Amino acid sequence: MEISTGLCSGEATRRLCECLRAEVENENSRQQSGVWRCLVLALRRNPHSPVHWLSCLLLILMSLLLLVAFPSQQDSGRSGLLVFEGLFMIVMAAINILLGVWEEYLRQTEMTRKLSGILSDTTSALRAYDENGESPLYFPVLMPSCPSLSFIPTYRDGRLVNLPVGLLVEDDEVLMPPGTQAPVRMAQIVSGGGEDIVVLNRGDTFLPAAGKSVEHETIEHSHIVPWSRFRVKEAAATYIIKHSLAVSLNRPISVLCQEKHIFVIQLLSHRLVWIFLGISFVVNLLRLALLPDDVADWPEMVYVLQIYTVMPLLPLSFPLFWTVLRWYGTACVLTSFNYCRSQRDNSANEPLTPDFTPPDPGTDVKNGRGNANRKRVWQTLWEIVKGQPDSLSHTANILEGLGNVSVLSCADKEGVLCNPSPYPNKVFFFCSEDCNETASTDGNKPDDDIVDQDKSETDELPKARRVSWHEHKDTTINGLGSVACAQLSEPSHAVLQTEESEHQNRLFLAAGTGQLLSHSLISDESWLSHDELISDLLTSQSPSLTASQASPGLEVHAQVLDLSVISEVGTVRFDDPSWLKFLQSLKPLGLNILLNCANQSPSASLWRQSHVASLAAAPSKPSDSLERYLFTLGWEIGFTSTGLAAFQPLSSLSVFSVRTSWEWMRPPSRQAMEGSMSSSKWRSLSSQLQLSRQRPSMVGAMAVTQVMVSQIVKQVDSGSYQLLSRGPADLLLDQCVDFWDGYELRSLTAQERKRVMDFHRRSSLSGYCVALAYRPVDSLSGLTQDVYIDLPPSYHDDALEGSESPEDLLQSDASPSESDSINRGDSTAFLEKGPARCISVNPESCFRFQKGQVFIGMVSLQYQPKKDVVRLVEELDGAGIRFVHFSSDSELKSKVFAAKMGLETGWNCHISLAEDEEQEYLQATDGRESLSCSTGSRVDEIIDGLSQDTDLETVFMNYKARLPRGIKQVRPHLENVDNVPLQVSLFTDCTPHATQEMIEILQENGEVVCCIGSALNIENIAIFAQADVSFGLEPICPLPYSKTGSSVDGGDVLKDTFASLRQGTDCRKTWHHLPIWLACVLNSLPCSLVFHREDNIRIASLVHKARHITMSLRRCFLFLWSCLLTLTVSVTLGSLFFLPPLLSGLHIIWLSVVIAPLLSVSMLTVPANKRLMTTMTAKNKEHVRDLRRLSVYYIIGFVPQAMVVVLCFGLMLGQFCENVKETVFTNSSNHTCHPLLGMRDSASNWNGWGLEYVQSLALAQDSNSFLLALYFVFASLTFIERSKPLRKLRIADFKGWGICAGISFVLQIIYFSISTWAWSNAAAADMFTSRLSDIPVTVYVIGLFWPLPLLVVHELVKSHDRKIYARYQKRRKLEFQTKLGMNSPV
């Protein structure tokens, strides 16, 4: 039965749309009672909602009572105001309730609406397929793997493509390599059409019976299992959507919402409202009972005055004010983000994705409302009001998240923090003393840690000696380094150039286009012709394998050269300007690298990767992928691609060895070492090794699969064969007998072997190390195809002995021919068929075939963080934000990379989240191992990896920290020991589950976590959903390498895909770019922002913007509630002093809905403080810490305002009463004016103030309103900048406040004028009226000059507050920077 070729892209996209539509419908059906459900959720005690059912009910009840009181007040001049006040309160209650319900509805349905938008865009893009039937862009199958990318080979449109896991749909056919985990539920397909034999659930590891490792004691052919076809049983989008919907509403409540809920709902609405209501009710009831003739009617005394008292504290303006300002602040941050994203760096078009150069940190912050103009801010605000769900403004608000963020975590490294693969950083090789002395004169010296011999200073050699590089061309291996030199530019003149001119005179071309860099300066000297180079190439054959005797006058040194990454061009360069003196040693090394990188078959690389994963029973990083940037070293040495055409790739020999980490760290064999150390040292080292090997079940002694690859190439012109090998030093060194010192072959003694292994151990602990070797081959007897060999776990080099030539060990004498040579194309058909087993040769003989090689050198590789990442860590550290890296690598590798980023990696600075199953056993062993080391590494492993000259006391100082190991030990440590795990910046050995749980632990302890990670990694969904706010980054993807310039098997498509990733979001929604865009948006459903790694985004700038707006909102709301509480206190004080109503309901509405909010808005216009990014934010716990201190500040700063207003009100009424007595009762001596109660002989309400003299009362109330507005304006001046005294501020810098204050003052004057005019016209002709001239001078003096003492009082309060805040900041910074844990003094 013929197996189908998978789904077509159109059908698969339709099924994905059906899956999305089904999930959306299910969620909508679950929320059918949406309005009522949202109403209940909005009105109950919900920290996200600005309204509460009790306060709303009280507001509606009081508005109805005002309408009921209207009939009883018809004879009063103020009766008409009650209707307006009651109706206005009902309208505001309705608006606030509807706004709260709408906000809750947007929050509840935001994720569903985001899915609906994705579905709509996908459906629109699908119409293009119906019109033209073209296949969209896919990543090629042979693209190098990367941990931050979730791809799986899938059959689409009759071909095998690299499909993002999130786009898998039911009935998709995929290829699963052995040792990989199933991303979704799937079943194996039997080629004969039988039933499914293997069913894998999500997370299960595919280990076929034929691929499981079998213990064997001899060298055998590898049982490489072909990749198996599986049929997907469940769409991956189902898991993504269900998990995102399940946790979308469970994120931690933001700091701003918590503070609002505690201060507004719990304190004001639930406590102060009832306290003031009770006080007012008791006082006015006593007045009604004790002074019935001096007060108003019972309706006004029983409930109208109480309504006026608590009206400012009711949800009149605050819910609307809170919601709109939050939306506006979010719109400002999003507009800033979009503005920065639109300013793309032109260098983003470089193939190797160089670092962008973002604008100055303050530029986009200042231009958030300028260059990213106000129009776009209001457009974004309108989109938020309508419910535009892309930024998750209601469930994961970026303003509240970034404004209070205390931890910025990163879940991925490759493609996010650095390039997808490590770059070479050191080169190790041997050189003779002659070459070393020449280089030493230019300042280069051998590595002191590797070479322990004394080095003497030598005189500088003549310049002619330094510039000549081919005078030794007749040496044994000089020809190897001269291959391809037809295009190898002579570096003799380059040595005379400065470092800057040398960099400028090179041509750097794009990686992946098949062109290598070359020196642009060509020597005037004549070059060897290509024929001469070929004739010089490896002129010595088999007899040359016996090294010549070293010259007695020249010693050999181990040389280490450092390399630096030039990110602008994506290549490396030597740090030492005199590196060309070592060119004789570097030429064979560079050629080996280029031939291995360019000639390796991607299919064979995938086979090696799958076999390593099968042996380890877990996914692994393939060495071919880790060594992908090795070719940049060949470029730097000077080789080009044209000369590589002189070699034809034939077969390869791959050797797999499974060892424990203790064996991997072992020194060379006894045969190699016994000649270089005394017997006592050897016995001591053997005892250490024996002690290590007695614990093979330790977590530290995990299985390590090593791969050594030997590439056989044929020289086209001469027909000779060469064997070029690369792999780990401990494997490769066993196959070497000689080494190249730059001038001649030398025997590889125990001393050189020790130097090699020392460098290998050090480099492997902190990164990756590749050793290179070579030998000529007389014939390829039987090796006509790729061979894969497994070494037994107990293999040692001493097990194979013999004197035969390696070529004589093969069973077949057949010579390779075109028909016999393996098809080394990159067709994906090999993945299902598997490599053909070369059964004609004995595996042990094949392994012996690699012996007798010449050691060339080693290259260590490390991941290099991007420059913008280092800058980001520095900026965040200054802002009190901890950058936390969750690394999946081992502890030592993670420490090296973290140190390069600028993170602390010393004592008490990192924790391993790997679960140690034998922790109890380790704690029961000797004293050294009982220490719970901060790195979790075993002491013996560290000792074995260090040279004998290392100071072990210094090493052990870093391993005495008492920190938990494993995610399960973190919470007990926090409860019982100290809080150091909260202050750690590096977590190693992390799994997605451990990362998610650690973020949850950080949140439980008050940290606000922002998480960034790859948007193409499906494992990040749970992590994104757990964080307070998340950013999904489209990572830098690896490019396949080809020596010819044409990318292998879809590389052109890959370049087009990268080009599409740099386009705008709308461009990527087309059918052509649909897979990449759709995978990103699905994997980043819980993310607030999604952008490409190359976009010009400064996260620190967004934090600055959000923090500035958040702090401005805090000042805004604090000032608003201070003003509203002052209105309540003023009315209450008037009742306590038996005065008529201090303010009417209309005055209270005017001040609380117009004046106070307008002045509060001015806080948002204040420019950011220059020290904003050096302050520490509060944690998400213990909100409103110093409530008592804030209460004292309010009493000192605002209560005197209310007292002054009450005093002025009493003085005005007293003067008006005297005027009434003199004007109306001129002939009567029985009428007296009481200082508080007025004309007590009057029989009307309030002794005449409620009816006959109501215009005078209205004038006094208007004056009170004016004074309060004036005081609010001056008080707001002290709120605009709390970190500086008023005398140090330039008011001209606060134009926004000046405009708002001016508008408020003008509006209050207009209101005062209209109210005074209206009451004067409403008064009857025979009614007594008062004018401004009737107000006593004392009131003018006290009322108008009080703002000066008011400013002094507020400045004193602010000065004390600054001192308290400064002490708090010092303590928070000390806690942030101190990691002493239980020994900390803080």
Helix content: 40-55%
The averaged pLDDT comes out at: 75
Distance between the termini: 74 Å
Report the count of strand segments.
29
Sketch the major β-sheet. 12 strands, mixed
* Structural classification: alpha/beta
Report the sheet-strand fraction.
5-15%
What's the gyration radius in Å? 40 Å
Give the overall shape: elongated
Low-confidence stretches: 345-372, 439-445, 448-552, 662-679, 681-701, 798-805, 811-826, 917-960, 1042-1066
Count of separate DSSP helical elements: 47
Keywords:
single chain, 1386 residues, alpha/beta, 12-stranded mixed sheet, 7-stranded parallel sheet, 29 strands, 45% helix
Question: Mind explaining what this structure looks like?
Answer:
This protein has 1386 residues and is α/β, with parallel strands linked by helices. Helix content is 45%, strand content 11%. The chain is built from 47 helices and 29 strands. Strands 6, 9, 12, 13, 14, 15, 16, 17, 18, 19, 20 and 21 form a twelve-stranded mixed β-sheet that branches. β25, α36 (1021-1026) and β26 (1029-1034) form a beta-alpha-beta unit. The radius of gyration is 40 Å and the shape is elongated. About 20% of the residues have low confidence.
